[in-house]
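Try this one yourself first.
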């Protein structure tokens, strides 16, 4: 299978490209960063430079790669380091252009990297508590900030794409994404302050996320499916119900079915059931390996 991975030089895109390559697929990466010209060392994947907010560049990259599947991981990956208008414009327009490229070139499938922020509560400028915990894909979307809004609209763009074409799509909502190098400096401050409950103690290991992306790309699901991606456990290492009671108190929303005692605030049963995802890593294993 030929796969085009956008955002191939970012955290999620780079690990996804490696996972596809390891699985025997033909991978082309695209990103806005400059390529390395001249002869390349063995093992370097083909790469195209394109600004995907430019419609012609997006179409040209897809024509050049001739993919069966596009994994769209490109975009500004958070709300905190760019002006709000730039975040919204970049992410929304790039996703629209990729969808248009799919429509006009006959690509069969898109895996869109959405975000846990799409329902709104994770990055809300006027904070609110979810209707229930753990959150699943059925929870309403109420995005406020430009990043969450751009990711939510990306899912709407996928809905529109499958409604007007023969393409199929899967939107994956990753939780807080950690690469192996991240655990040593990210985890300790979060464990020391469990009251910082922006995503209810959820995280996803980038290698498990890459496995899910491959599964989503090679599955035969119809229409447009949305799935969350998070590790089975919470990063605090305590019973979830206890954390909710201690941190939220009387403001705590209703608790729904818990997949395990130390689960986090995002439920991933749909990804496991629909796509056969079986995340293998945990923060305990990562720290033990350091």
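Now uncover the answer:
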């Amino acid at each position: 299978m030929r796969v085009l991975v956008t955002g191939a030089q970012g955290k999620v895109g780079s690990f996804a490209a490696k996972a596809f390559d390891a699985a025997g697929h033909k991978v082309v990466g695209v990103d806005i960063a400059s390529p390395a010209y001249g002869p390349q060392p063995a093992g370097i994947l083909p790469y195209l430079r394109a600004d995907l907010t430019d419609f012609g560049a997006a179409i040209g990259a897809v024509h050049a790669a001739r993919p069966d599947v596009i994994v769209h991981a490109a975009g500004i990956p958070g709300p905190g380091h760019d002006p709000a208008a730039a975040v919204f414009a970049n992410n929304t327009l790039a996703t629209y252009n990729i969808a248009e490229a799919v429509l006009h070139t006959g690509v069969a499938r898109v895996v869109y990297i959405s975000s846990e922020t799409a329902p709104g509560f994770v990055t809300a400028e006027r904070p609110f508590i979810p209707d229930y915990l753990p959150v699943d894909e059925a929870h309403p979307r109420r995005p406020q900030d430009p990043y969450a809004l751009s990711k939510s609209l990306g899912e709407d763009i996928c809905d529109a794409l499958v409604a007007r074409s023969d393409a199929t799509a899967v939107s994956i909502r990753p939780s807080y994404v950690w690469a192996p190098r991240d655990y040593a400096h990210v985890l300790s401050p979060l464990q020391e302050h469990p009251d910082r409950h922006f995503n209810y103690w959820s995280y996803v290991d980038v290698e498990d996320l890459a496995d899910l992306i491959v599964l989503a790309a090679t599955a035969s699901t119809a229409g447009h499916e949305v799935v969350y991606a998070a590790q089975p456990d919470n990063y605090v290492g305590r019973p979830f119900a206890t954390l909710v009671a201690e941190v939220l108190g009387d403001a705590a929303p209703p608790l729904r079915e818990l997949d395990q005692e130390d689960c986090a605030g995002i439920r991933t049963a749909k990804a496991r059931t629909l796509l056969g995802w079986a995340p293998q890593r945990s923060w305990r294993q990562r720290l033990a390996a350091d």
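Discussion: Residues 2-174+206-230+267-272 form a domain with the Rossmann fold fold (CATH 3.40.50.720). Residues 231 and 282 are 7 Å apart (CA to CA).
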